[in-house]
Amino acid sequence: MIMFLFIALTYISCKKDKPTDQNDEEIVSPSRGTRTEFTLDSIFLYAKQIYLWNDVLPGYSNFNPREKYGNIKPELSAFKNELFDISQLKLNPVTGKPFEISSQNSVPKYSYLQIGRSNSGGTRAGFINGEAVLAKRIIESDDKLIAYIALGSFPSLISAQSKLDQVFKEMATAKPKYLILDLRSNGGGYVETAEYVANLIAPSALNGKIMYSEQFNQTLQSGKATILRHQPYLDENGKTVIYNGRLATLADVDYTENGNTYKFNKKGTLESIQNVYIIVSGQTASASELLISCLKPYFNVKLIGVKTYGKPVGFFGVNIDQYSFYLSSFLIKNAQGWSDYFNGMEPDLNVVGSANPILGDPGEICLKSTLSAISGKIQLIPKKTASISKRNIVVQSSVFSAQDNVGMIENRLRLKH
């Protein structure tokens, strides 16, 4: 046996003579072991404090990660198996099944790990790829002017802001009352960018009104996630920050709901939107669903397409040895407190589009159906996806897993005042 310390593992020799309740107790694990054993310990111990549903996790000795997973080869499989088992412990009372159940064997619906260390404020730099704007146009239908924008992803705001500003400025000149957002291929990305799009859509009258809030677990909210002292806090440029005379860590972040409530702050010049129609699919997830959720309390929002993925949770990355772990860490709630779309958002009009649509083409089936709905030629009544053929459902789920889902990444964690 060998003894050594990782940057994120210096806590493991801590002990407490008189354990109290679960949140106050110092979690004890062996101070000696192999590199793999320390990583197995760390996955559980981080989950014990930062996982959204940490209330169902047993004590370290009962979970016993070394005994359960220590003999699994290769080690990456051991880590993934442990993460999956952790993710299946919390049951959704509505369905009786785990919140993180997925269509893929041994793959959590939300949480995941990646080889390579996170290096930018708890998130992975360059993680979100793809264009923010895939297509845009003004459509005249009957006597209505309609803005159409297809958003492919929500990359970092610094890389997407210029293009987003330009597109929404062009839309504003037509003063459309109707907006069609095509999010069918948008698996999410940075919360900050999705929020910025919401501010481009919203009128100035919504300034100061609640857009959404992030709700972390009670351990994080009460400042008891001491394990995060071993994760450095980095600014938007990936630089360390001095806090109270020392280097800041993720333990210094304000995880309270009040400190993580975001309000509208109008961007751009588009002020005319009243009705928002959104084209969705099983690949519409995370930050895309956040955008839909934020708009629902304030606009007439209608969904066209197939039921969305269902991900009202987000995360920030933590480093354990050579891996980055993304544990579901916060729940997203809109201004009405709504967050219950773990099983996806049902469309108001169920339409199955083609695999490779021509975005912005009024003859394309999803856009054509949306235009018909706007003109009143089609009545919108929510339908269950059971009406879609099983073949289509299989295609939707099999091509989109938790790893494909680029997620809902929070890269603006705020230090306590």
From TrEMBL:
What keywords were assigned to this record? Answer: Hydrolase, Protease
Q: Taxonomically, which superkingdom?
A: Bacteria
MF terms (GO), sorted A to Z: endopeptidase activity; serine-type peptidase activity
CC annotations in GO: outer membrane-bounded periplasmic space
Signal peptide positions are: none
Query: Which GO BP terms, alphabetically?
Result: proteolysis; signal transduction
Q: Which residues form the Tail specific protease domain?
A: 108-352
Show the InterPro entries listed in the entry: ClpP/crotonase-like_dom_sf, Tail-specific_protease
What's the protein called, per UniProt? Carboxyl-terminal protease
Origin organism of this chain? Pedobacter kyonggii
